[in-house]
Fold:
Amino acid sequence: MLKILLSIAVLVEVGFATEIQTRELPLSAIQKQNKTIVKLSAEELSKTLPQTIDKYTRLIKIDGIDTTLLYTYEINTGSKSDDAVKKEDRTRMKEAVTYGVCRGNKKFLQADIGISYIYLGARSKTELFRFDIKKKNCNYSE
Structure:
């Protein structure tokens, strides 16, 4: 799976480099290309689901919507209520997720592909957190 994603990233990078050398791609062409990359990536990544991340978290779904990869997780909150988790853990989770996404998905983000993480309560199935991360949320020196 990692080889396939790396291949997609290389193809995107080579495609962009070739186009930049000869002419600028119109925005509509870049967006169409990104939609295809997002769709193919979501399909490939979904083949391994569901996936246990740690003793509290499971990755249950990956969707490709427009130019955004949308990861959906379930969190086993134990005895904590959904409201307590939202209130106590949001800031810490947002920082950790943003840092991890910025670090691990640089090629996608720099190609203007967004990454969204949704966390649902395992019991209630209600949304606890949603973090939408784009290139502007990361400190990349280009």
